[in-house]
Amino acid sequence: MTLIDRPPAHADARPATQRLLEALDARRPGHALPAALYTDPDLHELDLRFIWQRQWIFVGSVAEVPEAGDYLTVDLGPSSVLVLRDDDEQVRAFRNVCRHRGARLVEPGHGSVGNLVCGYHRWTYGTDGALRHAPQLMPGTDPACLGLRTVALREVAGLLFVCLAADPPDDLDRVAEVVDPYLAPHRLSSAKVAAQVDLVEDGNWKLTMENNRECYHCDGHPELLCSLFPTWGLAAHQVPERLRADHERYLQAERDLVARCEELGLPHALVDDLVHRSVGFRVQREPLDGAGESFSPDGRALVRRLLGDLPEFRLGRLGLHTQPNAWFHLQADHAITFAALPLSVDRTLVRTTWLVDADAEEGVDYDVEELTATWRATNAQDADFVALTQAGVADPGYEPGPYSEAEGQVEAFVSWYADRMREEVAR
């Protein structure tokens, strides 16, 4: 072999699936993943194939496509998905690929169309995906066979999930049955977008999700700690003596919230099924500190108009997590959706969207800067933490360390990921 033919020093001739299984086998329960699962481009390709092309992925809310012709696009690895409200007011999802020679139909982001017109050869599709016009189509060609390729889409109380698999996992309906009563009073299907911010984190998507799944690091979020109790996420035996009074205050706020939810008929109890189903999820209504109304410096509401059918502001927050890529915070005044989307092995897009009641007026009922301040600051801090971790796991000195007691949901996420990857390899 000549020097020019020599493979790179990091090359590994073993099949990627073999390396994946070896990496998963090497992880000790209760410990972080081996470095290759955060840094190896070939294993990242398997993530895209086995998770992002097979599982239900949160992509946005119906509030982002409020009128006929409104659309959003989202990239799931190499696949671009177009989510569109058609002329009959139904939300649909399609591959963002012209059926002629494959040109992208619409640019990334949000927009509105009458018809979908390919910018290359002017093939034109209706909002229902049907081919309406194709110049000089060969005689005998049936346009009915050339509609846009559909993508499975499911709305859950105003939240939109898509799945690229020909045979999507069948448990999203069951998850919807559980979480819909929690979400329904917020009426996200009739909310509107107050703001949306895209932030790129310099880390693998799993590091983004792991960071989100714990508050062990929350001392690094001063803005968030204004509304989260200092002992949030700690079991009673984990509370240090200096925080005992704060913990008693939290327990009293929790009792008060539970009592009020019972009076109002609002579901509040924890349901945790993060590991064993395809759509792992966790949902619970919990108290907030201060005034107990919203994520703000004093815990008071940031929007003067109540969201949906909720009767009062002091109802804490409804937290929902879904595997593999989303988390949600719903208060009585507004809701926030978060979607993590992989851009490369070491870059992840975090899309944050603030939703308010459709009748709320900017500048009258809310101020966008105030509404978004806590999570803009918190997301930026999280991006720094994720970048630090990506740099560390790429270091030859990295060895996976043990999780703390406060990182149970990180262990649940990693276990969910490992189980789904093994299932896909076994197909």
UniProtKB/TrEMBL annotation:
Pfam families: Rieske, Ring_hydroxyl_A. InterPro entries: Rieske_2Fe-2S, Rieske_2Fe-2S_sf, Ring_hydroxy_dOase_asu_C_dom, Rng_hydr_dOase-A. GO terms for molecular function: 2 iron, 2 sulfur cluster binding; dioxygenase activity; iron ion binding; monooxygenase activity; oxidoreductase activity, acting on paired donors, with incorporation or reduction of molecular oxygen. SUPFAM superfamilies: Bet v1-like, ISP domain. Residues 56-162 form the Rieske domain. Gene3D superfamilies: Naphthalene 1,2-dioxygenase Alpha Subunit, Chain A, domain 1 (3.90.380.10), Rieske [2Fe-2S] iron-sulphur domain (2.102.10.10). Signal peptide: none annotated. Keywords: 2Fe-2S, Dioxygenase, Iron, Iron-sulfur, Metal-binding, Oxidoreductase. Its cofactor is Fe cation. The keyword Lyase does not apply. The keyword Acyltransferase does not apply. PANTHER family: CHOLINE MONOOXYGENASE, CHLOROPLASTIC. This is Aromatic ring-hydroxylating dioxygenase subunit alpha. It comes from Nocardioides bruguierae.
